[in-house]
Design goal:
Layout (H helix, E strand, L loop, with lengths): L1 H9 L4 E6 L5 H13 L2 E6 L19 H8 L6 E3 L3 H4 L17 H5 L3 H16 L3 E5 L3 H13 L5 E5 L19 H6 L2 H14 L5 H13 L4 E10 L14 E9 L2 E9 L4
Parallel strand pairs: 1-2, 1-4, 2-3, 4-5
Antiparallel strand pairs: 6-7, 7-8
Bound molecules: adenosine monophosphate (AMP).
Adenosine monophosphate binds next to α2 and β4.
């Protein structure tokens, strides 16, 4: 991959990179379509990164089907699929990790210790290997976007980060590879997450600026669904991820994580984006 990328750079091709863990769905495809529009060459990585899974998480059973993913990608004019084996990324004696301070201790970082260290490390390795001009990430993982932007700046990568809006199912449920774990009943009920976020947005549009009140609206709606168990509901500054009390001029992220049975899902909306 590194030598292909080097050649592409020599040929002055614009390289777009879409990192994924496979089990591709419309959310990933939205990133790939944008990459296709913007770049000469599109590289998609498929790597279920062991370093970003906790010991009690779903690394072993995470859905993997490289053949199906590759088939799907034939329709999207992807130039390269980079699907490394784990030892290619983490060689013997691997011991260098990237830790983005300040943005990774809260929200997903609090619930999933070590997760973002794994994300930051693998993204650094992939960026170093490919050195893309543009890299595409989904807003669905809003905290990940914040840390990738910081990491890119801090480590001096010459890669522009492009962020793509959340792609949803018709019910409003954010698309996710983990949705495949849900039973049909859980899947139906999981749409309460987006309904709750929408209610907060409506309240915001009607003038509510108090973050606790908006969080309470989200909580109540999610809790109206008995099988939903809230992990967190948070209103934070969209860039610094620091908690906010009142919503003023800056963008505020309303981020939630909710469990349905053993399945933990995340979703978010942004308030104050030209509303
Ligand atoms: P993953 O395979 O889950 O690591 O996701 C790979 C990329 O796809 C990440 O940048 C995600 O944020 C993005 N992504 C996943 N689901 C969605 C979605 N529903 N809408 C937009 N982007 C998504």
């Amino acid at each position: 991959m590194a030598s292909i990328a080097r050649k592409l750079r020599r040929d002055t091709k614009t390289v777009g990179f879409v990192p994924t863990m496979g089990a591709l769905h419309e959310g990933h495809l939205a990133l790939i379509k944008e990459a296709r529009k913007m770049c000469d060459v599109v590289i998609v990585s498929i790597f279920v990164n062991p370093a970003q899974f906790g010991a009690d998480e779903d690394f072993e059973k995470y859905p993997r089907d490289l053949t199906a993913d590759a088939c799907l990608l034939t329709e999207y004019e992807v130039d390269y699929i980079f699907a490394p084996e784990t030892p290619e990324i983490y060689g013997e004696g691997f011991s260098t990790y990237v830790y983005v301070e300040g943005l990774t201790e809260t929200l997903e970082g609090a619930s999933r210790p070590g997760h973002f260290r794994g994300v930051a490390t693998v993204v650094t390795i992939l960026f170093n290997t490919i050195r893309p001009d543009f890299a595409f990430f989904g807003r669905k993982d809003a905290q990940q976007v914040a840390l990738i932007k910081r990491l890119t700046r801090d480590l001096g990568f010459e890669t522009e980060i492009v962020v793509i809006p959340i792609v949803r199912e018709e019910s409003g449920l954010a698309m996710s590879s983990r949705n495949a774990y849900l039973t049909p009943e859980q899947r139906k009920k999981a749409s309460v997450m987006y309904e709750a976020l929408r209610e907060a947005k409506i309240a915001f549009k009607n003038g509510e600026r108090n973050a606790s009140k908006l969080a309470e609206i989200v909580r109540q709606k999610v809790e109206s669904e008995p099988i939903a168990r809230i992990d967190y509901v948070a209103l934070v500054n969209g860039a610094s991820l620091e908690p906010v009390e009142r919503i003023d001029d800056s963008e505020v992220l309303v981020a939630i994580a909710v469990r349905f049975g053993n399945i933990r899902l995340i979703d978010n909306i942004i308030l104050n984006r030209g509303q």
